[in-house]
TrEMBL record:
Superkingdom of the organism of origin: Bacteria
Protein name: Acyl-CoA dehydrogenase, C-terminal domain protein
InterPro entries associated with the record: AcylCo_DH-like_C (IPR036250), AcylCo_DH/oxidase_C (IPR009075), AcylCoA_DH/ox_N (IPR013786), AcylCoA_DH/ox_N_sf (IPR037069), AcylCoA_DH/oxidase_NM_dom_sf (IPR009100)
Domain Acyl-CoA dehydrogenase/oxidase N-terminal stretches: 13-97
Family the entry assigns: Belongs to the acyl-CoA dehydrogenase family.
Cofactor field: FAD
Residues of the Acyl-CoA dehydrogenase/oxidase C-terminal domain: 193-315
Entry keyword set: FAD, Flavoprotein, Oxidoreductase
Molecular function terms, GO-annotated: acyl-CoA dehydrogenase activity; flavin adenine dinucleotide binding
Keyword Flavoprotein tagged: yes
Length: 341
């Protein structure tokens, strides 16, 4: 599979090797990573705070490298809060002028009662970056997990998705602008689009591997026209999702996350990835037949992941509505520039 734009191939290979080696050490099982071994290894390699400024203990890399790291984890079936820690929680702390160490973190925006639901990895994090609105402005602070009330939950693939409750009256936070909160929303949405794309690419790889290696009536499955059509649709949908996600990622990076069209592009990426998942999952299981439903086969690692991730940090319906609203409110002749710029 191709790397994300501008990522050095040697770096991409190293990332893939780290996760593949960890999976092999765990006897090939998909794992929701709760231990410290991999976390410590990633920290030693400079991958844990990949996008952090070098002056704050980070590696000074960018979002393309972060996307490649997320992709490598997905391909190996390793579930770990890389994005939540690096490009979301620690980024927000750094943007707010606060320090962050290597302790596992996640981030959430709580409501007026101090509650947030479906927070990724809160029950396994050591610290939680809280964002809330008080006195007409947003505030952020870094809180030890044991000081919060965390009710565990999981998503479709067993990753922690928890309810977090905080006593806001006892919190003193740093004021941040609404632009950072908006960036947090868009970056969170883009993280899940990147992960869905990685899952779709792996599903395509498994489909190609299956239809070229399995024979029926004396010839490979790939030689049957109906099967070939199913796989070609998987390839087309995965490519569309990745193209839309790369466009949003490029706009975010080049525009320093302040491009006027960024919300539309992220929404389009999420919409394309979400709808692509429906086609890809359906076709992939048709191609694999009964073997694709077994626990031993890896297909379910990626099909269930794609379906779970497409509904997080905003549902498909939410992102579809953002795309539709942007198109409807584009000025005369503005729709074309919205799509092409």
């Amino acid at each position: 599979m191709s790397t994300w734009p501008s990522v050095d191939q040697a770096l991409a290979d190293m990332m893939a090797a780290v996760f593949a080696g960890h999976r092999e050490k765990l006897a090939g099982a998909t794992v929701v990573e709760r231990g410290s071994d991999l976390w410590h290894q990633l920290a030693e390699l400079g991958l844990l705070r990949l996008t952090g400024a070098t002056g704050h203990g980070g590696s000074g890399a960018g979002w393309y490298e972060a996307a490649e790291l997320m992709t490598a984890a997905v391909r190996s079936g390793i579930r770990i809060p890389l994005a939540e820690h690096d490009v979301l929680a620690c980024w927000l702390l750094e943007a707010g002028g606060l320090a962050a160490d290597r302790a596992p973190r996640t981030v959430c925006l709580v409501d007026g009662h101090g509650v947030a639901t479906h927070v990724p990895w809160a029950s396994t994090a050591e610290r939680v970056v809280l964002v809330w609105r008080a006195g007409g402005q947003y505030r952020v602070t870094d809180v030890a997990a044991e000081l919060l009330t965390i009710t565990p939950g999981t998503n479709l693939i067993g990753e922690p998705r928890d309810t977090v409750a905080a006593e806001l009256s006892g919190l003193r936070g740093t004021a941040i602008g609404p632009d950072l909160v908006s960036q947090l929303r868009l970056k969170s949405g883009l993280v899940r689009a990147i992960q869905v794309c990685a899952a779709l690419d792996e599903i395509l790889r498994l489909c190609i591997q299956h239809v070229t290696s399995r024979n029926q009536f004396g010839r490979p499955l790939s030689k049957f026209q109906g099967v070939a059509h199913l796989v070609s649709d998987v390839a087309a949908e995965a490519a569309l999702a990745r193209a839309a996600t790369e466009a949003a990622l490029t706009a975010g990076v080049t525009g320093k996350w302040s491009s006027p069209h960024l919300e539309f592009l992220v929404a389009a990426a999420r919409s394309c990835a979400g709808h692509a998942a429906s086609v890809v999952v359906r076709n992939a299981h048709q191609v694999h037949g009964a073997i694709g439903t077994t626990r031993e086969h890896r297909l379910h690692e990626f099909t269930r992941a794609a379906l779970a991730w497409r509904s997080e940090f905003g549902s498909m319906h939410y992102w579809d509505d953002v795309v539709a609203d942007a198109a409807m409110h584009a000025s005369a002749g503005g729709l074309w520039s919205l799509v092409t710029e």
